[in-house]
Design a protein that fits this description.
Distance between the termini: 43 Å
Radius of gyration: 15 Å
Strand content: 25-35%
């Protein structure tokens, strides 16, 4: 399952960047396993095998990536995986910038609502679509869903944080 998640992160990342580049020329994506050096610094308290590497995320212009991004983290066990598409912003960055996240709570895409959660370990605000399970048989369909949700949510979130 881990190898499928790695492939999904790279595929989703490349597709979203390619779709969005004409509209948002400064969009960029980072795959967790490609940013190990930064993850080792940010999570120096964790052993190497516990580093959160199963994700792809997209930055907003010159905003600090690890403070604010569109993220698609995967939860992986030996035989199962799931993921959630969401807008993530740290509590500190939210307070320091005054970004108003209220509209996210009302955002809907393809009939799905956004849920607001606060990550217990990082205090990161996460505005996420419902989790989707991943299987080998449904990988293509799930990748397309992640891409569709990611594109829609990135566009919407950008209207809240766009440079003035």
């Amino acid at each position: 399952m881990k190898s499928l998640v790695t492939i999904m992160c790279r595929l989703i990342g490349e597709c979203i960047v390619n779709i969005m580049k004409p509209e948002f020329p400064r969009i960029y994506g980072i795959v967790g396993m490609d940013d190990l050096a930064m993850l080792r610094v940010r999570y120096s308290h964790l052993p190497e095998e516990k580093l959160p590497v199963d994700w792809v995320a997209f930055g907003f212009d010159d905003r600090p990536f690890y403070e604010i991004h569109l993220g698609i983290p995967f939860q992986v066990s030996r035989d199962l995986a799931s993921f959630q598409v969401g807008f993530h912003i740290t509590n500190e960055y939210l307070k320091s910038t005054g970004i108003f996240t209220g509209p996210l709570k009302a955002f809907k895409h393809e009939g799905l609502s956004i849920e607001h959660m606060i990550h217990p370990a990082t205090s990161e605000h996460m505005f996420v679509f419902p989790a989707l399970s991943l299987s080998y048989e449904m990988a293509g369909e799930k990748a397309q869903t992640a891409i569709d949700h990611g594109v829609a949510l990135y566009r919407f979130a950008y209207t809240m944080i766009r440079p003035v």
